[in-house]
Amino acid sequence: HVFLTPNLTISIKSLLESLLSESKDAHKSIAVLEPIYGATRKLIQEFLPNKRYQNLQVTVINPGLFVEDSTEILAQLEAAHAKNPFHFLVADHVTSQSGRILPIADVIQWCKDKGVTLIVDGTQSMDLILEEYPPYYLLSTHKWLANVKTCGMLRVEPGNTVPDPCGISFGYGEDDSSAHLWTGMQDYIPHVVLGLALRIYEKFGLTIRQRCSQLLQLQLERIGLPGVLPNDPTLLRTINLVKVNRFDDRVYTRLQDALDTRDVRVSVKTFDDQQFLRVSVFAYSEAKDFDTLGDIVDYKLNYQHLNKAKLTHEFLNMAAMYDALFEPLQDEAFFVRAEPLRHHLIFYYGHTGVFYVNKLVLSGFLQNSQRIDRLIESSCAVGVDEMSWDDLNEDNYPWSDPSIRPMFLARVKQYRESLKQLVCQLINEYDFSKEPGRYSQQDLPWVILMGIEHERIHIETSACIIHQSQVKQLNEAAIPKQLSLCNIRRTEVDSVPENALVSVKGGNVELGRADADYPESFGWDNEFGSETASLEAFQVSQMLASNAEYLQFINAGGYTTKEYWTDESWKWVTDMKRTKPLSWVDLSTLRTIYQEIPMPWDWPVEVNSYEADAFCVWKSHQLGKPCRLISHEEWYLLRSRMPGKHYNINLRHWGSACPVDMFGEAANKKGDIVYDITGNVWQHSSSVLTLLQKGFQTHPIYDDFTTPTIDGKHYFIVGGSWISCGNPSHLSARYGFRKHFQQFAGIRYVVSSNSYHEKIQPYYMNRADSLPITAHYLNYDEPTFLKHQPESNWYSWFGKFAASMIPSDAVGLNVITINGSVGRTTLEFIKACPDASVQLAQVVHTDLTATKLRVLESLIECGMIRWDEYTEGELVNNHYFCLDEHALGIPENVRISYRQLDTNNIDPKFCNQDVAIIDGDAGNFKSVDRIFAGLVKPGGILILASMERVKSIPGYDCMTNESSAWKITKQTGRMNRVAKLYASAWRRTEAPVESIPSASDLPIQGYDDTVYYESEKVVHSYEKFHFGPGLLGVPNFSKAIAEFAIQVSREHGISLSRALDVGSGPGRTAIELAQVFKDVTAIDFSDSFISMCKKNVSSFSFPPGHSFRAVVGDAHDLVCEENYDLVVAINMIDRLSSPRVFLKGIKPLLADNGILIIASPFTWLEEFTAKENWLGGYQKWAETYRSIDGLKEALAPEFQLMKEPQEIPFVIADPDGSYQYTLSH
């Protein structure tokens, strides 16, 4: 009774034709129980009636896609049969459309009772061994039998007609109407091995079904895609549908195609304009097979396993989503500032595309000449939060003139289309051959992902602005289906469930990510690093505060009772005249993104942080105990324990919030549910936005993503909202806004005694603070060209030296550090004392300036500091220093205090110490004779660092004066100060102070940067720099530059006739050029330098026919001949008042194919060059703009960069005995 056919479609066609041919009824009738397989439907409803049996009546019975209830299905069958009796009924055992399982036993019995022949397609069923079979049961063997190839199989219940002939075919060619039929079987292999497959199924089929069913249920729940059909252990379901809310079909012809690019093998179904995925589990399926699907709906890409198709799909899908958000806007809405603190929507529509281009240029993956539209790129570059660099002046926008707005909008739209082509081309050309685990944050895919995630942030912030636009400026008919509203709402206040407190067990949390080098997925710079926190037990609100709960606050006088508000927030309330949340049109109407709807009282209230704080104060009165907003660490602990992914986030469900009691999971062992720990709306936090304690580094192409927000005014928002896609939905995400900003954010309150970040960690950002902190707390580990390698951290070395002078048996010493600056020497001294808690009683750390004292005080108080190191102009690298990482904590028994102290006039109350440690390399330290003999008590120890070796100090015996070390401190990224410092130790004699004669005047001068070019000492120093052999092992720079220029000139084959040295100083470079070039001119603004040049040139001889002259001149107004083959400008351009004027003036002086060589450390200072005239070293269009970028722009199009810049070192002696060690770029 089992017949084998090429495939199922042939089986059912052959069977029906046989049955219909044998039927003696003139009016033959077939009923179809929907849903049914598409090919079967077409066969019965179109092919058979039109081509074979003209009188065939077809009845369609449709109880519903997901109806499995036997009573309901039988009632539908009964009604249809009573109206139009039918002879045959065709049904799917498990429908391929929705996975609905037929109550087959009940349907078999009903058909028997009615005399209806039942034909069941069992292809999608894994339950092949039935207690009772229908007359005809068909299936295809490749699915659940796991046969190597498919073939059709028909089982005929004894006593029923056997089709004759059985449909054997190797392909159809009857006519066009049979095109839906599959090609026939190509060989007999499926039939040959079918017996083995059946025997395997007979032995293991039930076990496989049970495993598959459990796997399907558990894994769909794990990835947050609960099945539409309910879990029923008696059915052992192996197919289910899940709802998805995707934008992919705006990019690809079908969502199916998009999923195929991501290696996801599921079927896409669409019913009533709702997208579903049909997920099937087979014998070979594993849990990991669900991960990719979960990542897709979470908008998460595995960075280490990228390829062209995946990255292209993610990029285009995000662009389509962003475009869809703006579709309902009428043109005028783009140019209205709906949110006064942000730009017009046209700005944000263009901004995300501009971001891609700017970052690609900055990272070097796109040339500056490949920019798409400079007008768009300059006008849509900066602005999310209101920052000092955001220009919000209404008259300064290029679209301020209403007449150009239609053109500008069209131009932005075209820009976005051009960007898609550009980025797709870059992705297609990129080599994805790296081994997984070797992709870093410097690779092109990371830059593309940064653009994608940046656009995901802006889809949310832009939605917040649209949410404040006037409804009349929006086209409701154009709202994308993916942004449809949740239709589950309680419109009666009394029907909303009461909130409650749920107990949460305490625990430890480890914040941050450790995969910065080769990240598994994209993350912003603030996510990488580490921090730990320990939390006590606390109570958390079960639900987010609903609109109904917030109404109680309003009715209790929330907006009119000053005691609920701080002074700052009360001023905001009164200034803004706020009486209700911004999204409330009135007390009965809510504004969603595009529409106004009757108030859904069970949705979460959306407020700013000021309102959330005030609500918590009011709630504290209601609860009779203090409550506050949840902290970042408390949320992190809860989310770590509640990892579910089914929440209203990532646009999984709707384009709106939903009831506050809809998505939750157990938060404790008792099973108490907490809802919306993630998603629905963001949760305002009590925690100020901070950086992770360890490991934070800005990303080089987006160095202002995080640091501008670490200002004590931005506070964490946690959990994400319904529209938070990708990174904002991740556990490690760190986002924050100012308290008055409006986001899709609400309230979750806690009753907790846990501490949290109420203030930011110390962060020093100005240049004056940066220099000493960099010197003390950033080791100099870069290789140098110096003969003597400096100590990587001299202050650490000196602290250890000082500790080595302390007797091991000393007890309870009082120590003073003088000129201690920001404190590294003090800390290292305490650490290096073998038993500091016994040896030391008190350390008084002193400096002339209170600012430096505050640095050390805050470091010890907070355990860490952060600061910006200025590298070029205003460009910075940020660093942190943690005491724990360097074991520099202060022992409990050691008291440390901070005092301002002038070393030239020491207050007697600071004298009579056991130990004094003096850093003599300081600007305010003049000489040894200022050291008061009574500074330390008789027998006490004086430890001194000095620029010269000190041989004697009156009143002190020398313990040692033989130690020395080279010190290097950064001034900028390329400029350093180097000095050799001597360390000595002295023991105070027993002689009374009054009997000690004055010390001899041994000058120990500190670094004095006020003396400059025209002083006699500086001029003499520059003469040695130009005409000496070099210093500290670094060869003569002026000569090295000339050799470099001559080499480049010869390599490029230019004429060696005429050369010009602008800013020549004493002229050594020009003199060396004259050895090769026939006519050389040296120009400098300094009379002293030109005089020195003329004095020294006589020491050099030139080849016959070569001429040399040195003249005083102004680089801004060069008066000289044209057609120079070579022009050099060395270490001069960053000291000009108008460098662009110089560059413009130099262009006509060069011959065709002439060479311009510019060398400079680019140490831009406003005392020489007004900031607006700097060539680089600042942010332009929110991107890092270096001096080399400015040079390229200023010299274009006449000049092109010939070779990549290189750095040549030079050393200049300073009058104080130190040296400038600089790299000229």
Poorly predicted regions are: 168-174, 176-184, 1000-1013
Mean pLDDT: 90
What would you call the structural class?
A: alpha/beta
**What about the largest sheet?**
9 strands, mixed
User: How many helices does DSSP assign?
Assistant: 27
Tell me the distance between the termini: 89 Å
**What's the count of strands?**
46
Overall, the morphology is elongated
Q: Per DSSP, what share of the residues sits in E-state strands of 2 or more residues? A: 15-25%
As a percent range, the share of helical residues equals 25-40%
Rg, Cα atoms, Å: 40 Å
Short structural summary:
The chain is of the alpha/beta class. The chain contains 27 helices and 46 strands. Helix 24 links the parallel strand 38 and strand 39 (1079-1084).
Structure report:
This protein is α/β, with parallel strands linked by helices. Helix content is 28%, strand content 20%. It is built from 27 helices and 46 strands. The strands form twelve sheets. Strands 27, 28, 31, 32, 33, 34, 35, 45 and 46 form a nine-stranded mixed beta sheet that branches. A seven-stranded mixed beta sheet has the order 1-7-6-5-4-2-3, with helices on both faces. A hairpin with a 2-residue loop joins strand 29 and strand 30. Helix 9 (345-362) runs antiparallel to helix 12, helix 18 packs parallel to helix 19 (824-832) and helix 22 (1016-1027) crosses helix 25. It is elongated and about 135 Å long. The termini are far apart. Mean pLDDT is 90; it is low at 168-174, 176-184 and 1000-1013.
